[in-house]
Each structure stands twice: as C-alpha cells, then as structure tokens.
TrEMBL record:
Pfam families: MarR. It comes from the Bacteria. One of its GO terms (molecular function) is DNA-binding transcription factor activity. This is DNA-binding MarR family transcriptional regulator.
Length: 139
C-alpha cells in the first residue's frame, strides 16, 4: 500500500464505490416490498434520523431540488407517512416529520436484509473489528 492510496479522498471514494455497487439489489427489494420509489424511502430514513426538517433542509440533505422534494413529500403525506406543519416563527417555512405509520413502514423496510458483498464476508474478524472501530469513530 502506497502513501497515495491512504489519501482520505481516495479511501472514501473506494468505500462509496463498494457500498453503491452492492446496494442495488437491496434497494430493489425495498421498492418492490413497499411500492414506492427509493427516494421516498430515503426521505423517511432522513426524517427518522433528524426528527423534523424544513422542506429546504430535506431537499439539501437528499440532494434533490425543491419541486422534487415537494412532489415526494406530497405523496408521502397523502399516504399518511409524513406530516407537514408551519414553522412557529415563519409561516412560509414548512416542517416535515414522520407519522406513526411512517415510522412503522420504515421499521419494516429496515428488516429487509442488506447482505454484505461476498468480498466483505471474506474479511477475518480482526479486519471487521478494525473497520467497526473506524465506523464507530465516524458516527
């Protein structure tokens, strides 16, 4: 391993590629199970983490534009999965949060197994423990 391969950006890029290349099958299973786009599932997951977000915060976090965010939130609200309310001090700002139904759907989505890639399963316990220590430090 060279010093160049330890550049944080290169390490991050490799990690992202590993994750992105292995998530497709799981995403399709979630979409098939719930009959909704994965973007909608991402909104639910983000709200579960944040608790409540403005529409603009949600758009920023998901890297989608405002009109697309509105379409997604409208659909989730129509399904009873999220609730939208006016901000206490700025009536033009809308806050979005999960409903009990949204939390329930998300809990069911999380039970769909996300299998590790084959190469990942081949790591020994020492490597897995080292990786888990790093992940714990990162959040």
């Amino acid at each position: 391993m060279t010093d160049e391969s330890l550049d944080p950006n290169r390490v991050w890029e490799r990690l992202v590629h590993i994750v992105m290349d292995s998530r497709g099958n799981w995403q399709r299973r979630v979409v098939d199970a719930f009959g909704m786009s994965f973007t909608r599932v991402r909104v639910l997951r983000r709200l579960a983490t944040a608790g409540e977000l403005t529409m603009s915060e949600l758009a920023h976090d998901l890297e989608i534009d405002g009109p697309a965010t509105t379409v997604v939130v409208n659909a989730l609200e129509d399904q009873g999965l999220v609730a939208r309310r006016a901000h206490e001090t700025n009536g033009r700002v809308k806050l979005v949060s999960l409903t009990d139904s949204g939390r329930d759907l998300l809990a069911r989505a999380r039970r769909i197994e996300l299998p590790a890639p084959d190469d990942f399963r081949d790591l020994d316990q020492a490597d897995l423990a080292a990786l888990m220590r790093v992940l714990d430090r990162l959040g």
